[in-house]
Amino acid sequence: MGEEKTTFENARQRLNAAMEHVDFPSEVIERLKYPKSSLRVSIPVRMDDGSLKTFTGFRVRYDDTRGPTKGGIRFHPQVDLDEVTSLAFWMVFKCAVVDLPFGGGKGGVIVDPKELSLLELERLSRGYIDAIADFIGPDTDIPAPDVYTNPMIMGWMTDEYNNITRHKEPSVITGKPLELGGSRGRDSATGRGGYFVTRELEKQLGIGPGSTVAVQGFGNAGYWNALFLSEAGYKVVAVSDSKGAIYQPNGLDVKSVYQFKQQESTLANAYCHGSVCEVRDHEVITNEDLLALDVDFLVPAALENAITAKNAGTIKAKALLELANGPVTPEADKILFEKGIHVLPDILANAGGVTVSYFEWVQNRNGFYWGSEEVDDRLEKIMRQESATIWAFAQERGIDLRTAAYAHSLSRLSSAITAKGTKDYFHKINTGSYKAVSA
Ligand code: GLU
Predict the structure, then answer these.
(1) pLDDT tens, position by position, 65-96
(2) pLDDT of res. 4
(3) Beta strand pairing status for 235-241 and 283-285?
(4) Full residue range of the structural domain in which residue 195 is found
(5) Whether residues 53 and 17 fall in one domain
């Protein structure tokens, strides 16, 4: 059964379906089967009580055919090499879907950052960079934020890298604070990118302003997406975090719920007392209940494997926007497709974050910074264009949007891999049929 497979096996499985729809040399798949390099490091950290604690971290560079590897750093207790490898694999396809000149990579540290003081967190962040400094660089591998890491952490990390190399190189890491070379619009970019995908395809999906939305995972991506959707007239009726969910059929005030969560650090406290959270009655429900709500649009924005063969049958939404990476397993995909539920796949739906990371990298390298409007306009153009192309391809072939997105990105990867030479090319050289074009 697919459900017992590792996350990485599930991730690679997506290629099989896509392969049938792209014409490319078979060795392209051979090149994409394994990560280019994987690093595992131990990070000794002096804790506030004077003790020494060792954390384990990873950095995986999956494929760099299209450019330096790119991808975030996750701080989470469940991080392991299988997860980081899968996330790096997804980054390869994500960057190709939106045509960025990047390959894919990812990093992670096994830690619950909520249990650390800010000083411990800073020492861990700097220690992680000390451990991987030879592996990263503005032209080799460029980290960014991911689950439970943020601009402040990216600032510490960039500073540490610059201390090691003894010169200022802001483009080594993206998602930095604005004051340290970050880009305008990077904080809201993942949510905004998903918003543009939704607006581009809403008619085709049978949703639009007035439609009800449930958001599973109310972190950075989930919050901004919910905010943009609600500003456009969608009705956000439920949001959740790792502790539970709140439901209000008349619609939630997204901003005030988020402010409350920030203050109290969990939604659980918004259930609901005090003046910040709106006092209209919320129903308290579980994460599972949220997924099964009778809403038009469901936004999984938390972690991998939230929707599996076990709960896919309970989903009633017309469409899903995968703001998280890998929230739907391959078996769940089949069930949703059979039920006629469209899934806007992660490698497209959450690509807004890395797209604005690319803008940040470009601005850093030019030393010239763009206004918010320029960032948002460029992001909108890319997200809408790729969404429309993928939708059209899926319609033409009668396939699901994920397969279409993988096929689209595989064809870009395949051209790049092929341009470096394939069996046919080298075979021709060996048999003397190669003709150099004279200048
Ligand atoms: N962690 C984000 C992602 O999964 C952003 C990566 C980046 O900006 O490089 O796409």
Answers:
(1) 999 999 999 999 999 999 999 999 999 999 99
(2) 74
(3) unpaired
(4) 189-349
(5) no
Residues 200 and 320 in one domain: yes
Q: What is the mean pLDDT of residues 164-186?
A: 98
Q: For a substitution probing ligand 1, which of 192, 350, 355 has the most ligand atoms within 8 Å of its CB?
A: 350
Nearest CA to 91 out of 112, 75, 115, 107 is that of 107
Q: Which of 86, 94, 106 is nearest to 9 (CA)?
A: 86
Is 364 close to ligand 1, i.e. is its CB under 6 Å away?
Answer: no
CA of 396 to the centre of ligand 1 (A): 30
Phi, psi of 236 (to 5 degrees): -80, 110
Asked if the structure places residue 39 within a domain, the reply is yes
Confidence band for 378, pLDDT divided at 50, 70 and 90: very high
Which residue type does 364 have? N
256-282 pLDDT, tens digit per residue, is 888 887 776 665 544 444 333 343 557
Residue type, 8: F
Q: What is the pLDDT of residue 65?
A: 95
Structural domain includes residue 355: no
Active site residue 381: no
| DSSP annotation string for 353-382 | HHHHHHHHHHHHHHT----HHHHHHHHHHH
Q: Which residue's C-alpha comes closest to atom 7 of ligand 1?
A: 354
Is residue 199 domain-shared with residue 318, that is, in the same domain? Answer: yes
Protein residue with its CA nearest to atom 9 in ligand 1:
71
Residues 213 and 295 both lie in one domain: yes
Any atom of ligand 1 within 6 Å of the Cβ of 72: yes
State yes or no: pLDDT of 2 exceeds 60: no
Whether ligand 1 lies within 6 angstroms of the CB of 70 is answered as yes
Active-site residue identified among 36, 70, 94, 106: 106
Same-domain pairing of 77 and 134:
yes
Does residue 108 have its Cβ closer than 6 Å to ligand 1?
A: no
